[in-house]
Design a protein that fits this description.
This protein is α/β, with parallel strands linked by helices and about 210 residues long. It folds into 2 domains: about 140 residues, Response regulator (Rossmann fold, 3-Layer(aba) Sandwich); about 55 residues, Arc Repressor Mutant, subunit A (Orthogonal Bundle), CATH 1.10.10. It is about 50% helix and about 15% strand. The chain has 10 helices and 5 strands; from the N terminus they run βαβαβαβαβαααααα. Strands 2-1-3-4-5 form a 5-stranded parallel beta sheet, with helices on both faces. Strand 1, helix 1 and strand 2 form a beta-alpha-beta unit. Helix 2 runs parallel beside helix 3, helix 3 runs parallel beside helix 4 and helix 7 packs across helix 9. The model has no long low-confidence stretch (mean pLDDT about 90).
């Protein structure tokens, strides 16, 4: 089955060149080639392409925006971003938007079909620096304070979990017992619990203290 392909590239000469390469490859079928991505929704619904070759900078709608739309309208399509420079921010944003990989335009003549082959084998053609950025974005630390506890509330919760009484907490933090009670009431509200036991259990189970 030939790879059904759409091209979005605003440079006329390059678009014609890529179109020729695709047309002369018996393993591929050119469905259309466009100078912008303003009609990308309709094209996806009409053609249902296997592959989209997407310029990252085009008039009217960027390749990043078009990639996001394709992911919603026709998520099965594989998308290779075409770019002049290894602009890490734009390429990274395109990958995050759902692109399968990218290819520098200066390498199209010798590497286009290798990149396509890699994508259809489950790979993702991209430079090490972009791959590193993608991996780092997946390793962002989890929210360590999902309940928005204040520093004082966390101190009191920590002290409670150690078995300290209200009086001991008040003495330890140099505040009144009434202030301790007020803070604990706020802690219960934020944690959505109704007792000291529930609060301590939740704090320990979820690593809040």
């Amino acid at each position: 089955m030939a790879i059904r392909t759409l091209i979005y590239e605003d440079n006329d000469l390059l678009r014609e060149s890529i179109s020729g390469m695709i047309s002369f490859n018996p393993a591929m079928k050119l469905l259309g080639a466009y100078a912008d991505a303003m009609g990308v929704e309709e094209h996806m619904e009409e053609f249902l392409p296997d592959l989209v070759l997407m310029d990252i900078e085009m008039p009217g709608r960027s390749g990043i925006e078009a990639t996001k739309i394709i992911r919603k309208v026709h998520p099965e399509a594989l998308i290779i971003i075409l770019t002049v420079f290894e602009d890490t921010e734009n390429v990274f944003n395109a990958i995050k938007a759902g692109a399968s990989g990218y290819l520098l335009k200066k390498h199209i003549s010798e590497k286009l079909f290798d990149a396509i082959d890699e994508v259809f084998k489950g790979g993702a053609p991209m430079s090490p620096i972009i791959a590193r950025m993608v991996i780092q974005s997946m390793h962002k630390p989890l929210d360590q304070n999902p309940y928005q506890l204040t520093t004082r509330e966390k101190e009191i919760l920590q002290s409670l979990s150690q078995g300290n009484s209200y009086k001991m907490i008040a003495g330890e933090l140099s505040i009144s017992i009434d202030t301790v009670r007020t803070h604990i009431k706020k802690i219960y509200e934020k944690l959505h619990v109704h007792s000291q036991t529930e609060a301590i259990s939740k704090a320990l189970n979820e690593g809040l203290v």
